[in-house]
Write a structure and sequence with these properties.
Elements: E1 6-12, H1 19-27, E2 36-43, H2 49-54, E3 59-63, H3 68-77, E4 83-86, E5 91-93, H4 97-102, E6 110-119, H5 125-140, E7 144-145, E8 153-156, H6 157-163, H7 176-186, E9 190-201, H8 207-227, H9 240-257, H10 263-272, H11 275-285, H12 293-317
Parallel strand pairs: 1-2, 1-4, 2-3, 6-9
Antiparallel strand pairs: 4-8, 5-9, 6-8, 7-9
Helix pairs in contact: 8-12, 9-10
Length: 321
């Protein structure tokens, strides 16, 4: 059976410092070159992203800044592929990435295939901690899942056409992938999780940037769940800790306005539930410094809640967006 034609779509915004590594990794795939193409969609960059893309024999599409969801739609709609592989402009796919995603293409019930995550040679502990945490979460996930991340996924073109692709109302990189995941499963397709199909992130996280990303996650989740309220407890990526810390953090915040006591107990409990992950990662990495990230995830819980509160006000109360 002939292999499907693959289009690799890379949305890019001010990605000049990382894009060349991503393109090169996509060009070095072991998938047949005559059955694939690479498309970079420039989402209104004001750096030299265009010049970087021009140095490679790929397709380049420019659009006025509209967000990554819109850029991905622009990419697959301008592609020739039967199978559309998405990654990000700060990612480095392994050489067998496309092959491992596409090997599940002929399963008729499968609409998408998601892969896993690595970190690319970063010396920074925060990058490594995020890597370890994601790997830990991925290790818990089943063969078929309800949502994917667009840094590493293959979606059949026919499925994108049936679902309409990504919702461009998600103009930040948060929630648009899960929203499409729910549309895919809602249309009767399954999402296979290929745990051995890896891409690595090359970006360097700083604490402020990481927390900003977490704020956005909380914010856009409110839009996502307004239209998919039944999916709140069906996300395999999350587990008991994520749900418990919401209640503990909200309980503490509420206690600041309604003095019902037990603040110290709520704070202590919220911090204590961060420790098992930090201890596990410190043990795996053989580095006690990772224990300090229990404080990072403790702060992250409040940042996510803050984003969720703003999102709830906008999307649930004022019904905007």
């Amino acid at each position: 059976m002939e292999k499907p034609y693959v289009s690799v779509v890379i949305p890019a915004f001010n990605s000049a410092s990382t894009l060349s590594h991503t393109i090169k990794a996509c060009m070095d795939q072991d998938y047949p070159k005559d059955r694939s193409e690479i498309i970079v969609v420039d989402d209104g960059s004001d750096d030299n992203t265009k010049d970087v893309a021009a140095g490679f024999n790929i397709r380049y599409v420019y659009q006025k800044k509209s967000g990554p969801a819109s850029a991905r739609n622009n990419g697959w709609r301008n592609s020739k592929g039967d199978a559309i592989c998405f990654t990000d402009a700060d990612c480095i796919p392994e050489s067998d990435w496309v092959s491992k995603l596409v090997r599940h293409y002929n399963a008729t019930s499968t609409g998408a295939v998601a892969g896993s995550y690595n970190v690319h040679g970063s010396p920074y502990l925060l990058d490594k901690f995020v890597h370890y945490e994601i790997q830990d979460r991925h290790s818990r996930m089943p063969e078929y899942i309800s949502s994917f991340g667009t840094y590493n996924v293959m979606i059949k073109r026919a499925v994108l056409e049936v679902t309409g692709g990504f919702n461009p109302e998600y103009h930040n990189a948060s929630g648009e992938d899960t929203d499409l995941s729910y549309k895919i499963t809602g249309a009767g397709y399954r999402i296979y999780f290929a745990k051995d199909a890896f891409v690595s992130h090359k970006n360097i996280l700083r604490l402020w940037r990481y927390l900003l990303i977490q704020f956005r996650h909380g914010y856009w989740r409110m839009k996502l769940y307004r239209g998919n309220i039944s999916m709140i407890a069906k996300d395999e990526y999350g587990y008991w800790k994520d749900f418990l810390e919401v209640f503990l953090a909200m309980g503490f915040i509420s206690s600041l306005f309604f003095d019902f006591g037990h603040r110290a107990m709520l704070i202590a409990a919220l911090f204590l539930i961060q420790l098992p992950l930090a201890v596990k990662i410190a043990f795996q990495a053989k580095d006690v410094l990772y224990l300090g990230f229990s404080l990072v995830t403790f702060i992250r819980a409040f940042v996510r809640i803050a984003g969720g509160i703003f999102g709830f006000i906008k999307f649930w109360i004022f019904r905007m967006g």
